[in-house]
Amino acid sequence: MLWSLFFINFFGSMYGFYWYKNQLIEVGSWWNIFVPDSPTASAAFTIVLALFLARRSQPLLEAFAAVTLFKYGVWAIVMIVAGAAQNAVLHGGNALSYMQWTDWMLMASHGGMAVQALLYGRFYTYRVRHLVIVGAWTLLNDAVDYVFDLHPWLPSSIAEYDHIVGAYTLTLSVLSITLAAWLVFKPGRKQQSIGERVS
Question: Does Transmembrane helix show up as a keyword for this record (predicted)?
Answer without folding.
Answer: yes
